[in-house]
Design goal:
Layout: H1 2-9, H2 15-21, H3 25-28, H4 32-49, H5 51-60, H6 80-125, H7 129-134, H8 137-179, H9 181-228, H10 230-235, H11 239-291, H12 297-338, E1 357-364, E2 375-382, E3 387-392, H13 398-405, E4 413-418, E5 421-422, H14 428-432, E6 435-438, H15 449-453, H16 462-471, H17 475-480, H18 498-512, E7 516-520, H19 528-542, E8 546-550, E9 562-567, E10 570-575, H20 577-582, H21 587-595
Parallel strand pairs: 3-8, 3-9, 6-7, 7-8
Antiparallel strand pairs: 1-2, 1-4, 4-5, 9-10
Length: 596
């Protein structure tokens, strides 16, 4: 696990990566005018900042006998009072430019990220269900949260700082060459080389530290597992095995930390001797040139400050570049999501839909498992207001039929008809407006009971909500809560019991008032008392509606109008309970005997 994490830290980008990431520019386009102004302020603030070394050098070495570093006409830079005024004007100008640069970049960044989050969320919720079979929810959440945060940092600061460091390097080099090309060559031969060596050292030490952290995390995981499962450890007399496993990890941590300490020691020694020595050498060379009359004292002071700026910029560039690479990688991932084809929305409306459903030789294979036929030539007819039960062993195809009814997937062959309309010609949203589902495992949203019931019909009145709760046998337990319908259900409905959650799900199905109802093992996980309340509510809900009931417990479907017995994707029997149970050689009879 930790090895994979280390591999992901290195971002490998191709030309295609940059091209895909370039799709992000369309989110910047609406704000391109103000963003361009922000960049102008960035250029101005960066250039004015580079006057600091020259002015400071002039201030430190102000000497009436020497020519100032640059000529401002009637302004005498050898007059330290006038020089201070000039410096304050420069700093004020830079502060002005910096304020507007930060404010504009921040404003544009937040607007762009708002648009990107909105577009990403909209894209995700409109993806076909198969998209979520191929992608983990945690990774998708990371794309919308973590990756966008990387973009926020890049747009706000990283890109600006990267550009500023380049301006610093260019201006500092021009200034140093202006003071003397020979001095510039000596500086370029020493300072950048030392900065690069320091960067390589730093990266290697960070790599060792990350390896040690990974090993330490692994040892902590062992400790947590062992203490949590201490009963199993003792029952299997695995104390020695677990101790050896833990010791092996902490031994690796020790070796990595000792190696890291050695490298840190070498790094400190390099900084003390190499970096300081190199800088001292460059300063010695500059001082020698000053004493020989090649440069003035003011130029010497400015040279020292420009050299410090240059060294700092060389050191900062690689880290900023790495952050930009990560941001480009994150952008590529986001653009990849936005480039995925969304669920088809176009189509006709179901006109005067009564509720009849017909499967005509339907064959289905999941897109991820094309070699496996899940439904093999299924044909059946469910008339208006009838209840069709789907029974069979796990993997027979029962839940797949409900998924096809909701058009979560497209059939591989054959046709599904709603009344007499081909389901492929019907608009998905209009189709799903006609259907309500009560699943075995109800997932409520982390709001109030009222908000969860309103999920069936967002514009329902309070009277309609209460009526739906009563029909679902939920009104009595809701009234017992202090906050009643405003009671918070907690994450995924954790503060409610299984039976209460089921009745909330039934209430929102009642509120939706669908023509078709799908019940997927809606009572299988409940105790007897809860099952009775839920079953009564379901019977009320199923009246005059075309219903599909997926059931393992055959006792719950005895009154179904038609029972489809599925086996390996085929209908092997169908009929009413009394007819199927009479056939002692049939699959339904055998399923019944297994249960009773």
């Amino acid at each position: 696990m930790f090895g994979n994490r280390k591999k992901r830290e290195k971002v490998e980008l191709s030309k295609e990566s940059y091209k895909r990431a370039g799709g992000f520019l369309r989110f910047l386009k609406p704000y391109s005018g103000i963003y361009t102004v922000g960049w102008l302020f960035l250029v101005f603030s960066s250039l004015t900042a580079m006057l600091f070394p020259a002015l400071m050098g002039q201030l430190i070495g102000a000497n009436p006998e020497e020519e100032p570093i640059f000529d401002l006409g009637s302004i005498d830079l050898n007059d330290i009072n006038m020089l201070l005024i000039v410096m304050l004007v420069v700093f004020g100008t830079q502060a002005f430019f910096s304020f507007f640069r930060v404010w504009i970049f921040s404003t544009v960044t937040e607007k762009v990220l708002r648009d990107l989050k909105r577009r990403s969320f909209s894209a995700l919720v409109n993806m076909p269900l198969d998209f979520f079979n191929k992608n983990k929810v945690g990774e998708l959440t990371s794309r919308v949260a973590t990756d966008i945060n990387l973009l926020q940092e890049s747009l706000n600061t990283t890109i600006a700082e990267f550009f500023r460091q380049f301006v610093t390097i260019i201006v500092a080099l021009v200034a140093i060459i202006y003071f003397g090309w020979e001095l510039a060559l000596w500086m370029l031969a020493v300072v950048p080389l030392l900065a690069i060596i320091a960067i390589i050292f730093g990266r290697y030490i960070r790599k060792l530290s990350k390896s040690a952290q990974n090993e330490s995390a692994s040892s902590n995981a062992i400790l947590d597992e062992v203490l949590t499962g201490i009963v199993n450890v003792k029952a299997f007399t695995s104390e020695s095995y677990e101790t050896n496993r833990f010791v092996a990890r902490i031994h690796n941590v020790m070796k990595l930390n000792i190696k890291s300490g050695l490298m840190r020691g070498l790094f400190v020694s390099f900084i003390i001797f190499g970096m300081f020595g190199g800088i001292a050498f460059v300063i010695w060379k500059a001082k020698s040139m000053q004493m020989d009359g090649y440069i003035t004292g003011n130029e010497f002071n400015a040279f020292i400050l420009y050299t410090i700026f240059l060294g700092a910029s060389f050191g900062a560039i690689p880290d900023l570049y790495a952050k930009i690479q990560k941001a480009i990688g994150a952008t590529e991932h986001l653009m990849g999501i936005l480039g995925e084809p969304s669920e088809a929305k176009e189509g006709e409306e179901l006109k005067d839909f009564k509720g009849r459903v017909r499967f005509d030789h339907v064959v289905f294979r999941y897109p991820q498992r094309e070699e496996i036929t899940v439904l093999d030539g299924i044909s059946f007819d469910c008339n208006v207001g009838e209840t069709t039960a789907l029974v069979g062993s796990s993997g027979a195809g029962k839940s797949t039929i409900s998924s096809l009814l909701m058009r979560f997937y497209e059939v591989s062959q054959g046709t599904i008809y709603f009344d007499d309309q081909n389901v492929n010609e019907v608009a998905v949203e209009n189709l799903r407006e006609q259907i309500a589902i009560v699943p075995q495992e109800v997932i409520l949203f982390g709001g109030t009971i009222k908000e969860n019931i309103l999920y069936g019909k967002q514009d329902a009145t309070e009277e309609e909500v209460i009526a739906a709760a009563k029909k679902a046998n939920a009104f009595d337990f809701i009234k017992e809560f202090p906050d009643q319908f405003e009671t918070m259900v907690g994450d995924r409905g954790i503060q409610l019991s299984g039976g209460q959650k089921q009745r909330i799900a039934i209430a929102r199905a009642v509120l939706k008032n669908p023509k078709i109802l799908i019940l997927d093992e809606a009572t299988s996980a409940l105790d007897s008392e809860s099952e009775k309340l839920v079953q009564d509510a379901l019977e009320q809900l199923m009246k005059d509606r075309t219903s599909f009931v997926i059931a393992h417990r055959l006792s719950t479907i005895k009154n179904a109008d038609n029972i489809l017995v599925l086996d390996k994707g085929k209908i092997v029997e169908q009929g009413k309970h009394k007819d199927l149970i009479a056939n002692k050689d049939g699959a339904y009879y055998k399923l019944n005997n297994i249960q009773f």
